[in-house]
Amino acid sequence: MTAEPIIRIRDLKTAYGSHVVHEHLDLDIRRGEIIGIIGPSGCGKSVLLRAIVGLKQPAAGSIEVFGNRLETLDPEERRAVERRWGVMFQDGALFSNLTVRENVMVPMKEHSDIGPRLRVELADMKIRLAGLEPEAGDKFPSDLSGGMRKRAALARALSLDPELLFLDEPTAGLDPITAAGFDSLVRQLQQALGLTVFLVTHDVDTLHATCDRIAVLGEKHVLAVGTIDELRQFDHPWVQEYFGGPRGRAATGHSNGDRTWKSALITPSSEHSC
Length: 274
What we know:
Layout: E1 7-16, E2 19-29, E3 34-38, H1 45-52, E4 60-65, H2 75-82, E5 85-88, H3 100-111, H4 116-129, H5 146-157, E6 164-168, H6 176-193, E7 196-200, H7 204-210, E8 213-218, E9 221-226, H8 228-231, H9 237-244, H10 246-252, H11 268-271
Parallel strand pairs: 3-7, 3-8, 5-6, 6-7
Antiparallel strand pairs: 1-2, 1-4, 8-9
């Protein structure tokens, strides 16, 4: 019997004015997995993340996280749920006037009663956990390289020991070596801490290195969900180009002659038929 999903989305609609981003979108996220969210530019990958964490109000449908619908919770209950996740936004969203250590302590101040001395100790531990040297804690974001800023943002997302981690384009703007190091860190942390990771990305190398499953967004809903090998057989032009193009073949180790396309093995309708 399949475990209850940690995130359950049904018939979701999001919109900005008259512009509909998602419609009739269904998706389950399983506890303990790293799921990659991909799709053409403008399909609403980051909008979906923002809707799940309550930063974008859905126009219709339902989103349950840890079995709770955020809109039904009172403020105290909602804060309790929000303590159980961490978010790393695409640009890091670090406060430029705070040191790395102070940035990492922000969620602790907002969502816990941890005292000042312990906050410092915990922040330094998270900084090391994210692969930064201890002295990075005293630096400001402007003093850091792009890769170090990403790791600082990850340290802040891990501040409250979350069960669920949201990563929005975590390797965007990084060189291949730095990106590969970040991918490896995410996988190591997921395995060591038992995290569930919701990872928005354009990077096929990141999918190959980290993800257990991938959800493809397009045409305002989820087109298919599966592993890379399963999605390579999904008969859709964008998916074929994404996984069958030169970068996709290089990342997955497939050659031109090995590319065959069949009907979808896993689709949202079949996954949620119950």
